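Title: Comparing notes on inverse folding

I've been comparing how different people in this forum approach sequence design from structure. To keep things fair, I'm posting one structure and asking everyone to reply with a full sequence. Here's the target:
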């Protein structure tokens, strides 16, 4: 077995795509443990892994986000946020966070959020007297709201892997997402007082009424999605199709939908969907081997020997997933770790919806945590900031997110209140 980690490291150094690297290591592992005869079953096992109804919604939600972000929605959301909180001390920081809340209901992706907003907010905040690294840090930190407030791509992946209700997960993400926004705004207000950040000038701010009217189509999109799911009018897949139709109509309201724009959106959707599915396929091969070798049962026995049960096991998972999030892409970490660790959590009576929110939130913290920190990487690359200085500036925001994560893990009702209110079975 010694050559398996060696092969993994060599492939990692070579710059090979993670899916190919994982697939190669999986096949070599089958051979190394004398399970090569099971390789003939892999195509069937991979298809079974991907044949989840929840996964059908993923490409349509991605397409919705691609259409909306190409239709000029960003400026209208920023103007509306400015009209609401721009006049307060540290106003542009608040606007940055509030825009991420609005944008989250469209993109479902932290990377898309940070890419769309960093080019706008970092130069504008620097021009208004903010430190450019602080502007970059708050942009990266607030982008984490994207995968928490529905629709969320990573919640769909979790639902597909565990069989949990995607609609219930979407409902469960509302309160944690809003709490995260409130916590970040509170921290921004404190820092604004300490550093003397400028307040907004009422004369320069957009008027509330016209900016609300302009932003209304974008703001209605998450309402349409959640409304159709919560009231049982549509499944997540049907809701995602409705979202695409709504995005096409809303896009006409903004800059219009051209043929070239639609083709670009379809191409980007196919590329992102293909990337996620090939990663899921490669990891499912390793998961099949883990089942054959009894790794999951060995892990369960080890957890039991340590006396990790209930809340203690959940906090153990928080530590594992925080560490994983620092080094791995969120879809990769979910696909690799959920099949290993989630079964024990569910057997111990941890609610699958609560578990999903905690672990998804958990991995998202890694998006602004070195050494990988993909949102930090995106912001640094697009605004020409030093990555490590940006990461250092973002640490107070990371601390707030970790504290909120601990609260989510300890008090399940924070996540489960809205699903219960909406009538989902989350007992």
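Reply #1:
Here's my take.
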């Amino acid at each position: 077995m010694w050559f398996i980690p060696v092969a993994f490291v060599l492939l990692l150094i070579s710059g090979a795509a993670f899916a190919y690297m994982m697939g190669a290591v999986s096949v070599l592992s089958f051979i190394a443990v004398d399970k090569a005869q099971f390789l003939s079953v892999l195509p069937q096992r991979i298809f079974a892994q991907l044949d989840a109804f929840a996964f059908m919604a993923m490409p349509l939600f991605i397409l919705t986000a691609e259409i909306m972000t190409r239709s000029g929605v960003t400026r209208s959301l920023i103007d509306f946020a400015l009209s609401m909180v721009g006049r307060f001390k540290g106003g542009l920081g608040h606007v940055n966070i509030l825009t991420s809340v609005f944008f989250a209901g469209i993109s479902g992706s932290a990377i898309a959020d940070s890419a769309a907003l960093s080019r706008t907010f970092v130069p504008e905040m620097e021009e208004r007297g903010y430190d450019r690294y602080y502007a970059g840090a708050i942009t990266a930190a607030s982008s984490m709201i994207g995968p928490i407030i529905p629709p969320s791509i990573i919640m769909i992946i979790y639902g597909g892997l565990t069989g949990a209700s995607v609609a219930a997960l979407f409902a469960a993400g509302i309160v944690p997402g809003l709490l995260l926004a409130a916590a970040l705004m509170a921290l921004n207000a404190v820092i604004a007082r300490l550093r003397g950040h400028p307040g907004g000038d009422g004369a320069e701010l957009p008027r509330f009424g016209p900016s609300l009217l302009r932003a209304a189509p974008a703001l209605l999109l998450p309402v349409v999605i959640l409304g159709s799911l919560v009231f049982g009018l549509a499944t997540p897949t049907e809701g995602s199709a409705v979202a695409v139709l709504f995005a096409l109509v809303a896009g006409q309201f903004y800059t219009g939908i051209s043929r070239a724009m639609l083709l670009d959106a379809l191409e980007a959707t196919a590329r992102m969907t293909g990337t996620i599915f090939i990663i899921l396929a490669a990891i499912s091969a390793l998961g099949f081997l883990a089942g054959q070798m009894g790794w999951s049962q060995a892990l369960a026995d080890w957890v039991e020997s340590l006396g990790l049960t209930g809340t203690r096991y959940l906090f153990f998972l928080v530590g594992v997933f925080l560490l994983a999030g620092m080094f791995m892409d969120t879809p990769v970490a979910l696909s690799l770790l959920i099949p290993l660790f989630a079964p024990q959590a569910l057997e111990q009576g941890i609610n699958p919806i609560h578990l999903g929110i905690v672990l998804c939130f958990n991995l998202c913290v890694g998006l602004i945590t070195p050494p990988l920190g993909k949102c930090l990487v995106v912001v640094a690359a697009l605004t020409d900031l030093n990555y490590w200085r940006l990461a250092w500036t973002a640490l107070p925001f990371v601390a707030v997110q970790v504290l909120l994560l601990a609260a989510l893990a300890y008090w399940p009702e924070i996540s489960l209140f809205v699903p219960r209110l909406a009538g989902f079975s989350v007992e």
